[in-house]
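Reading a protein record of the kind used here takes little practice once its layout is understood. Each number in the token line that follows is a code from a learned vocabulary of backbone shapes. One such record is shown here in full, so that the layout can be seen directly:
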Amino acid sequence: MSLVRVTAVVLALPLALSLGVATPALGQPTPPPDTAPSATRLPPAPTRAEAKRLLASPKGSTSLGGTSGGKLLAGVEIPLKGKGWAFFEHIAERKTNYGTKELAALLERVAARVVDAYPGSVIGCGNFNFQEGGKIPWSVSHQAGRDADLGMFAVDARGKPVNLRNFVAFGPDGTARAHGKTVTFDDARNLALVRALLEDTEAPVQWIFVADWLKGRLVERARLDGASPELLRRLDETLKQPSDSNPHADHFHVRIYCSVEDRLHGCLNWGPVRDWVDAGDAAFLAHVEALVGVMRMDDAALRLAAVDKLTTLRAKEALFPLVGALEDPNAKVRRAALRAVRTLEDPAAIPGLLASLSKATDPAWAGALFETLYHLNTPSTVAIALGLLERPEAYLSESLRKRPLHDLERTAARIFGRLGRKDVIPALLGLLDSPDAKVRLAAHDALRQATNQPIDGPIAGKSAARRRKVVAAWRKFWEAHKDDSWHQWMRLGFEARGLRFDGKMMSSGSVPLLIDAIAHKDTVAARNALRVLGDLTGHLVDFRWRTQRNHVRHWKSWWAENKARFVKP
């Protein structure tokens, strides 16, 4: 592996400083909290029968994963009509009247409570979930059996209650057109519906997505009715207008928490857990600890199953035993443990990963370990990547250093490109001369990402002369602009693509243009627009979280709500 000279002197510092954390000796994971199993304090191994019970597949309806990427096992079919509710006519054809047993029971309880208070009321129901979960064409969520779209109640011009036969959008004045006439948002009945949802203890509600102006009406009605401070707090925390989709002025999008039982099989609660909700943390931790015990068994198949289960659970509490399993005698268990560490994305795993890397003799395994550092996505990974290129003997075994390590070089380039620090540019320029085409391409892509420059050319091609032209273009840019700031690089790149700033780029007046740039066909520009917006506003958003279209929606909504904080009157 050829050494790439870099300007940063990384390994002159102790490892702990280069990582930005205090760590014990290389290879020893940071001591975990007393509440979680550790590599040195493992629970006892269970009996084989107990292990099989812990690893058994769930029975009955089960929500797995998150609501925007999960699935539903044995979904419960909810009758199209019941006491106080009715699905809209088109739902029978769509077959989206399924959910977990908890969601089905919640609808029954809430509808009964509303009918008792307001006889004759019928909750109009839209999309819930498919029987087996997964994506539905009408929403990015509703995938794990825990989401439900409930219609809103209205009154006519005489104040007579109206049960709507489909969703209708209520404007800021609270009115809408339905059934050929103007109707008004029924504050009383809609509050009764929302209150029944928030006060249910058997299937606690995490979110009720609804437009801000309708939330305001509900909160005001609750105040006029003399609602308790606790109910007002729940209304405030749970009712929310989404920032990256329609405002939900025509229906309530209800999302419930994972049941405790489902959490033990891989149901994931993304977002806040309210202080009035028992999410089953004690049972979850006990289950994780028992699975860690399975990792101590002699049977490699059971160890592998336990690691896979902990990965499904996203069990951060098991991080250190999983890092320890990188040294398991069974290759399948080692690979599964690495997948788990990558999934958890916890920087506390870095010392253990480096320890395993220092012992690795297989280039493929070393590449996989180093690739995991990329997924951890911390500034410390830049220091590690620079150090590995500058002094591989400090990180790699002697036998490994004698072999081509192009996988490591490619990953280092990707790390440099994503975090985009100026001190990585010399290393990337050096990688452009690699004999490996994939390394050259990775370095070229990283330079585009780090600098925002639309320099292009056949860097991975076979023609040395044409490659030299690309390298020369990059070196010319570096010599001309190495003293510029990163923000100056960003502006140069945007302007080279036709974007023109009226004044300073790092000012509130540039925000609308940067938001538009998120939709740019060049994803380098789109990603960097997000990064600049984060620097400018302090509102940090990962490009991976949404589509470009939804990122634009999110930022337009966020800016409308927060613009006053940045724009001087």
Remarks:
- Confidence is low (pLDDT under 50) at residues 1-35.
- DSSP finds 24 helices and 15 strands in the chain.
